[in-house]
Predict the 3D structure of the following.
Amino acid sequence: MNLLDSLKAILTIAYKEFVHVWRDRRVLLLILVLPPFFTLVFGHAFEGAAVRDVSTMFLDADNSTESRKFADFLHGKNVLDALVEGSDNPDKVRKDINDLLQNLKDTFAWKKWVGPEKGPIDLVQDGVDAAVVIPQGWGKSLQNGTPINMRAVLDGSDTNTAPAVQALLQQALGIFQLNERYELIKNLPEQVVDLGEQLSPQTQHEFSSSLTPWEFDTEMLYNPKLLFVDYVVPGMVGLILQLVTVTLIASTITREREVGTLSQLLVTPLRQGEIVVGKVLPYLFISMFLIAGTIAIGHIHFGIKIHQPLLLSLVCFLFLLCSLGLGLLISAFSKTQTQAIQFSVFLLLPIILLSGAFAPLSQLPGSIRIFSELFPLTHFCRAFRSVNMYRADFGFIAADLIALAVGAVITCIGAAYLLRTADD
Amino acid sequence: MPKPLIVLTDLAKKFGHKSAVDKISMSIGQGEVFGFLGANGAGKTTTIRMLCGLTKPTAGRASIDGLDVWRDRFRIRSKFGYVSQRFSLYGDLTVRENLRFFAGAYRQTHINDRVDRMVKEMDLEPYRDSRAGKLSGGYRQLLSMACALIHEPALLFLDEPTAGLDPVHRQQIWDFLYQVTQSGTTIFVTTHYMDEAERCTDVGFVQHGRLVAKGSPRQLKQALGGDLLEVHVEPAMPAVLELRKVPGISGVDLRSGRLRIHAADPQALVDQWQQYWPFPGLKFLGYSWVEPDMEDVFNAYAQGRHSQNQVQAALK
């Protein structure tokens, strides 16, 4: 039977290709050791996306009672007794304050002031990442009813840290101010309290509301603990597999072209399609193993939860097939192995940067995102995250799956077409 | 002439503006051992690659067993074997693995029996589990031939199968080719060695992409026009240079220490030299008449002293 013959022919090639990889011990070691190793290293590298230990120098130029109290607060000492006492729900307030204090301690690594007391501050020259100054006369200005502003100097080039530090400082100052307000009320003369009780209950309630911090009750969907590692590991696994598949298979046809076996192959009755499928199969097998291994590391080591493993397997399968097709197309197109590797590198560079493996694709401008859609890794990252983080179902990621499947078919057909002659 | 198996009709291949094969027309009969001779770059390999369907002819056509070499290339492929110029097997596969791979690629059945038989026939038994890349040149070539013959084709293309081999392996390969022809297999072989050309039943000379002569070795030698003058002069090397300047001599080749003279009227030269030897620095030690061999034929064509027209005229 014709189909059976074809299948036999494909297996003949697949076996041969597998032996090539198996006997090339150095490459074998590389592909078996590096992907898991990279997963561990990159995982840990991007795990701590939270801002930690920002080296910050601090100057209390005021040295008043108020400034010293705020300085103590910033340095992690609980000075907000009035807030706790005055609250209707002291346990919750105490817990919130403790969280904030912990956050302050984690975020800042306080340094001695080495900069000038006045004028511009050069963070780099002073060897710190941030500077916080309580200006002279701050305490007095609060009493005068004309509060002057605190001063913070941040490194705007670090787009991750600077906004986080700014927000934390503002939050700390806000809570501190609220505490001062409670303290003020506590110390109000009796007459004012008596006077207050004459107000209508409505006004009294509104007054009381204004003294309670108004908060958002924020719900974090999809990645509740805001663990960056949950977001980044699929991107990382995809990126590693993208690199491994493309570079591995890119040299298979060109190697045969260089050694001369391609001519020998093309004078046999093997059809181009059989050659392409036979070459892709063993690499598909190997890379399915690798992707399973690296995801397992993500699961075991980084505690990433796996949802809908079957659907994820389909995503991985189509992604690998499409990547291998891409590599094979490069291989059929290149004249030498060197060329094939060069093409791969130049193709992988935009894939790394524009596929959304490490940062959400929505941060890219629309015109660039059109390019992103051309890369298998883009579809893989989106589909994988959709399924694993957003619990999307098959229908939701169908577009990405179709894109990957179409990519696989087009690249494989392209590679087969280029094999029609052995012309150099 | 046996029934033609390969027929070339104005077959041509251009790479850009450069003509690699220039309108070659010829036919090769079934069961022949056809030697395709020519200098490096004359177009031998390109012709073979076109016949094997590896590269598309620019113009003209060629057929094997009535099937067009390009249009019907998928149908012809099981009919012939091809041993390319370079060692083109998988160096990281063993001898038997290579054979098994090609047996599978040619969709053969009973692969193991076939491979074992081929290993035995080719004297590859001691190396059957060695990596092909570790074999010496001669055994590599034997293995290449074994891989090309694994499907028992009726036609075998060999592109310089003995290039760079020692005389023992060359002998071994030609002995094997002879065996192959015994079962009626047609052979199309290119070579640089003229002693090998003698073993062919039919020979074609190609020069700058053009076929300049074709015929049996005997016919081609006859076409040179009788015996050649061979003179014994010492020292030989300066003698070659001096004699080439003599008017009436169209070529001088050094062979086994003697000088073969190609001239329109060699008898007159000998008569003249016996009376007066014009080169005081050289010693004339005698002369003889020898039958031309294929090397003389090759040199004659390579140096442009003969053309197809002359040969055809002589053959008539």
Observations:
- Residues 225-315 of chain B form a domain with the Alpha-Beta Plaits fold (CATH 3.30.70).
- Chain B has a mean pLDDT of 88.
